[in-house]
Design a protein that fits this description.
alpha+beta, 4-stranded antiparallel sheet, disordered N terminus
Amino acid sequence: MTALATGLDAGVLAPVRAFDAFLGDPAHDDAVVSTRRSVRLDEASAFPEDEIAAVTAFGLQRWYIPAAHGGMLDDALVPLLMIRQLARRDFTVAAAHGKTFLGAICAWVADDGIATRMARLVETGRPVSWGLTERGRGSDLSRSATTARIGAGSVRVDGGKWPINNAVRCRAMTVLARSDDRPGPRSLSLVLVDKDEADPATIGYEPKVSSHGLRGANLAGIRFEGSVVGADAVVGPEGHGLEIVLKSLQLTRPFTTGLSMGAVDRALQTALDAASVPDGARGRLLDEPVARRALGIAVADALLVECLMLVGVRSAHAFPGEMALVSALVKFLGPDTADLLFRDLTRLLGARALVVGTEDGGALHPSVFGAFQKAARDSRVVGIFDGNSVVNLNMIVNELPNQLRPAAAPSLDEVLAPLRADAPHEAIDTTGLRLVTRHGSRLLRSLPVLVDAVHDGRTSCPAVDAARLIGDEYTALRREAEDMPRQSQPDPLAFHLAERFALVFGGACALAVHLARRRAIPGPLGESDVWLAAVLQRVANRLGADPVQAPVADALLDAAVRVHETGGVVTLLGSWTERS
């Protein structure tokens, strides 16, 4: 089984299975994306031209286009899992190809005449990029200095964007530019600069950026020197550029969890491979109690990121008005947890985790440790783009008053329904996106109900005990947040509070996913609530409670090893996608 365990042959997730089969086994050199070639390209900082061409020929870009505009994007979980499959093999390929989804997203959110034009561009397979950041301006998009002079029949763009993925390779770029000299949020607009329309002599480039991760990616700068496009290239209403970008980020942030999960899949595969092979006199890591506990905790971290991925994408469908907060929570905690996983597994694997290139695999595939090291470097970029961790923590701080505002408690079914495998999922209603929420996240508000539901009459067990600790932490956090002074510039204590809220949200995600999949056919990770106990204990530990118990970590690791030995990927989705 090379797909996401079982159950992906039927229903809306069938394309994920087909894409996985198309990509082939990465251990084989003749696969579309092979491990050995991936590592060699990375070492040479070379762009994966052949891999990108093959994925484009498959038609992955069709899943970036909403069905309403002639594409295949209906259930957003599908392209998210396809990106995960690609990132598991080569993060650089996934980031380079998936950039088109980011480049096009503003057109879908604006949902005006530009959307049809964007759909035609994306369908060609030529990259569309997103020009937001500028040299020396960090993450503060309101300080954008690139200008767009919008006239009766044309738009002139002057300035530069840096560093931009696919800056040189892209056919077109959605550019955030200043269209009004007056200060304020309505001074920025979005312009689709199609290089086939603008005079090539007015577009220049800065050298490729040499980066620690994503070495082969086309990260560079682009300069517009009087680039002229038609007036119909304005994306959305004039002056609404910043608002459209901020709403678009509410969708792209959960989408990046697919990249994180792909890297995490690679890390777990390497660690489980290495742990099962004797290492000289030391023997197998799978036989060492300390190593087993570390591996079990790593599996728990991976499943937490997967729960965040599911809740993030399903919330976009079901509760778009809450995505201002949910997307920030997911975007902070997902990459942060993936970073912890790589840190812990690097310590476990020792010097082997630092091996570069395609050699020294020992009894394993010769490229396996080079691929781990590449994934470790590449995955760190997720916490930086689409708003870095500080930006997302700041958004959480700003949303806390809304989370505390009195509101009717949501029913358990209301919260769980979007997470069930058999739930219908209509296209995301981008008109429902809001810059601020009314009452924060209903999933977070429902945490006490989720804790009671998982309790289910049991007086004590590892999952229930950990759930209670997280529920108590949420109650305490609410009290602290109520007493927190309102500040225009949040202090470090406010950021610490936001980080703890994110961890509590992670616990709520795990509880909701567990409860929603109770009707699913049990799989290797769903035979009991052992995975839930491990994830909740890990969250509680990060909140200051005791570490994950050795028996809990051992039980989860044993389940993960069973999946791994059959060639499967450690995931909850196998049984989650099957109904009894």
